[in-house]
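Regression test case RT-17, inverse folding.

Input:
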């Protein structure tokens, strides 16, 4: 049993606790007959692209754009268009 707990702890070490909680909540509401494997659960927590996980947990919201980087990129594009 400890081996399994250690294995899951290592695999989930870098995953946000809120994402783990959301995945568990979605699992309790799902009609799945079996719990996910460790790789499946990690993918669910990370918003995996596997269609089988889409009904469990949505992808996290996008990060806000960096205004300084956006301005630099837009200026670079404008210079390219003017050529």
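Golden output:
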């Amino acid at each position: 049993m400890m081996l399994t707990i250690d294995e899951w702890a290592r695999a989930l070490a870098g995953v946000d606790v809120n994402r783990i909680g959301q995945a568990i909540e979605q699992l309790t509401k799902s009609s799945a007959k079996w719990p996910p494997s460790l790789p499946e659960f990690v993918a669910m927590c990370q918003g995996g692209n596997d269609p089988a996980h889409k009904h469990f947990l949505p992808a996290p919201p996008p990060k806000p754009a960096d205004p300084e980087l956006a301005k630099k990129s837009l200026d670079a594009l404008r210079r390219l268009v003017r050529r």
